[in-house]
From TrEMBL:
Coiled-coil regions listed in the entry: none
Catalytic activity: Release of an N-terminal octapeptide as second stage of processing of some proteins imported into the mitochondrion
The protein's name in its UniProt record: Mitochondrial intermediate peptidase
Cofactor: Zn(2+)
Subunit description: Monomer.
Compartments (UniProt record): Mitochondrion matrix
EC number(s) stated in the UniProt entry for this protein: 3.4.24.59
Family: Belongs to the peptidase M3 family.
Annotated GO MF terms: metal ion binding; metalloendopeptidase activity
Function: Cleaves proteins, imported into the mitochondrion, to their mature size.
Cofactor comment: Binds 1 zinc ion.
Domain called Peptidase M3A/M3B catalytic: residue spans: 241-681
Main location group: mitochondrion
Length: 698
């Protein structure tokens, strides 16, 4: 494949010269991101196809790639069914999974990110067709039987290595949640429920992002300019949480969250179907099914975690809300009651007042090229890994501003590729995320199939006078997503079914959240944060203020996440025989400090219920683990190579090949309790008194 061509360690300096600056010449990786991409005009250069897949030089190629994968699948199913039980069974299943995933994962990305509608449509069709095959395989009794023969043979299972045994068990879990062990009638019922859920999930996801509208004459004329409007209606598509006008925030909240009967019915039906499916395949609830194999393991553990955290945060949260109310009283004494639409705005006001965190003061020090150099330097120090800019071949990328990085280890050589789709463009989804395009795995030839991922951000384009400049929030997002990418790159699992981020949800966010700690540590930031014009380093007190500002109203912010996580758990627990709104009212009172607003339905905007059903707590638990890893292993020296190697060896290398708690125990060299998780989150909110002393002295 063209993705394995020679590495280009230098991106021509003429590309970087289009940006006016006075600092020393950028390194190759810095130059690649601090200038407009220079396209090579070679009329004779062959179009290698998206990601080096020759057939994908046109949208019609998706049908070709899909059909080939489906033919290979049929052959591999036959091979798996006739093979004697042993390691070959697991290898064949993984090859089967890889054959489908290489097409499905690529199509999943293209259908949302490609600027050409023809490519998006072709990719969507491929996703549907591959998904149909996956459903067919998950209910193939003979195929499941070949795996069951292996799992039932204790002598053979004991002869397998732990990773192979775990992969076999994970494949069987996939069969079981599809109802393979049921009789034919119930199996058909499980299939029908799965098909129905696909439609319900899609309908809810689409509906959760749709704007609400109200007649123009229903709103005061002096605030209408804040919203999109046509000749008859005002359309509200978000909370307008950052606006200083109290009335605008209130109106946006009440209109955007006004209940939609059809969407409400969709959500109710979705939750019922999930519960029915879970019960059908042998679980007490959908939450019990979703949490199998996670760090938490059970809904009871999750709710215990959330309740303990609430108890520990109670006084601090109350203090945070009191500070917000005082600020609102100061700014608007005639309307001083603190309401849900006030939380994001006034917490931001308090941070700005206390620490003077103005993004425009930081951005000149965070040019994209400098930040990429910082990541490169950090990975070299911790893992002996370098990011090397490689020029894509014709047709390899979907947009000219996509950068391609080869990830190279100092002794192991090429580890994989990261495609960086960082810049805003029309119709591009406004989201920061990591896509696996191809998972790593050992091939029968003895070679290793290199992982390929895409990182998508929404950064401004460089201008003629300046490179792309990042706000502190953008910098943190860049480090976060690169944490996911390095999880994919540094894993060396034998099987792609457990490669990189293909692990339990409450562990998958640990490497990305850990990177946020590096992004705000002065010893790391000082390696790269230079003013793009003068070369002046970012002052230490500015970094310290940035870190401390995040703790302002941090308890209230965390408590809001606890409320969301608790709502998600209860929705996916035992049926409540009451409306989702009634459940929300009760939990908002129990887990959050601000009142429920009548005639609103926040749950209809909770799109995470689809991708993170019963797992929204994962953000909090992953943050707790990341905090413990940072404070125990890296806070003394964030550039320590020995600790970086241990981190790779214990946590990054295994993907989903080990129990997540075992990986955490290996890194921390102890078995943390739920109380330890809670204490880690709470301690992160403690102020650094050294920062206050420095600020008072300055």
């Amino acid at each position: 494949m063209s993705s394995c061509k020679r590495l280009l360690s230098v991106l021509r300096h003429r590309g970087a010269s289009s940006v006016i600056r006075k600092v020393a010449t950028w390194s190759p990786v810095g130059a690649a991101f601090n200038a407009k991409q220079q396209r090579r005009l070679d009329l004779f250069e062959k179009n290698v196809g998206l990601f080096g897949v020759p057939e994908l030089s046109s949208p019609d190629g998706f049908a070709v790639v899909q059909d080939r994968a489906l033919r290979e699948t049929e052959q591999l199913v036959e091979q798996a069914c006739r093979s004697p039980p042993g390691a070959i069974t697991v290898k064949t299943f993984d090859q089967l999974s890889d054959t489908l995933c290489k097409v499905a994962d690529l199509a999943d990305f293209v259908k949302v990110a490609h600027p050409d509608p023809a490519y998006r449509e072709a990719a969507e069709k491929t996703c549907i067709n591959i998904g149909t095959m996956v459903e067919k395989l998950n209910t193939n009794v003979e195929l499941c039987g070949s795996l069951k023969n292996l799992l039932d043979n204790k002598d053979v299972m004991n002869s397998l290595d732990p990773e192979t045994r775990r992969v076999a068990e994970l494949f069987m879990f996939d069969f079981e949640i599809s109802g393979i062990h049921l009789n034919e009638k119930k199996r058909k019922e499980a299939v029908n429920l799965n098909v129905k859920l696909l439609d319900l999930n899609n309908d809810f996801l689409v509906g959760s992002h749709m704007p609400n509208k109200i007649e123009r004459n229903a709103l005061p004329s002096h605030i209408q300019h804040h919203f999109f409007k046509d000749s008859q209606y005002i359309h509200v598509s978000g909370f307008h949480a950052d606006t200083s006008d109290d009335l605008v925030r209130e109106v946006a909240y009440k209109i955007f969250l006004y209940p939609n009967t059809q969407l409400m019915n969709t959500l109710e039906e979705l939750l019922v179907c999930r519960h029915e499916l879970a019960k059908l395949v042998g679980y007490d609830s959908y939450a019990h099914r979703a949490l199998k194999g996670t760090m938490a393991k059970s809904p009871e553990t999750v709710m215990n975690f959330l309740q303990l955290l609430t108890d520990k945060l109670s006084d601090r949260s109350a203090q945070d809300f009191s500070m917000m109310k005082d600020m609102k009283t100061k700014l608007n004494p005639r309307n001083a009651d603190l309401m849900p639409w006030d939380h994001p705005y006034f917490s931001g006001v308090l941070r700005a007042e206390r620490f003077n965190i103005e993004p425009s003061l930081y951005s000149p020090f965070f040019s994209l090229g400098a930040c990429m150099e910082g990541l490169n330097s950090l990975f070299t120090e911790l893992f002996g890994v370098s990011l090397m800019a490689e020029h894509p071949s014709a047709g390899e990328v979907w947009n000219d501003d996509v950068r391609k990085l080869a990830v190279v280890h100092e002794t192991e050589g090429l580890l994989g590729y990261i495609y960086c789709d960082f810049f805003q463009r029309p119709e591009k989804p406004h989201q920061d995320c990591h896509f696996t395009i191809r998972g790593g795995r050992e091939l029968s030839s003895g070679q290793y199939q290199l992982p390929v991922v895409v990182l998508m951000l929404s950064l401004p384009q460089p201008s003629k006078s300046a490179p792309t400049l990042l706000t502190p929030g953008m910098l943190e997002n860049l480090f976060h997503e690169m944490g996911h990418a390095m999880h994919s790159m540094l894993g060396r699992t034998r099987y792609q079914h457990i490669t990189g981020t293909r692990c339990s949800t409450d562990f998958a966010e640990v490497p990305s959240i850990l990177m946020e700690y590096f992004a705000t540590d002065y010893r790391v930031v000082n390696q790269f944060a230079r003013h793009y014009q003068t070369g002046q380093p970012l002052p230490k007190n500015m970094v310290n203020r940035l870190c401390e500002s995040k703790k302002v109203c941090g308890a209230a912010d965390t408590q809001l996440q606890v409320f969301y996580a608790a709502l998600d758990q209860v929705y996916h627990g035992a049926p409540q025989n009451r409306s989702t709104t009634d459940i929300l009212k009760e939990l908002q009172q129990k887990f959050y400090g601000l009142p429920y607003i009548p005639n609103t339905a926040w749950q209809l905007r909770f799109s995470h219920l689809i991708g993170y059903g019963a797992k929204y707590y994962s953000y909090l638990m992953s943050r707790a683990v990341a905090s413990m890893v940072w404070n125990q292993c890296f806070i003394g020296d964030p550039l320590n190579r020995e600790m970086g190697e241990r981190y790779r060896r214990e946590m990054l290398a295994h993907g989903g090949g080990k129990e997540p708690r075992h990986m955490v125990e290996g890194m921390l060299q102890k078995s943390p309790s739920i109380e330890d998780f809670v204490d880690a989150l709470v301690s992160d909110l403690n102020p650094d008194f050294e920062t206050f002393i420095m600020d008072s002295e300055s």
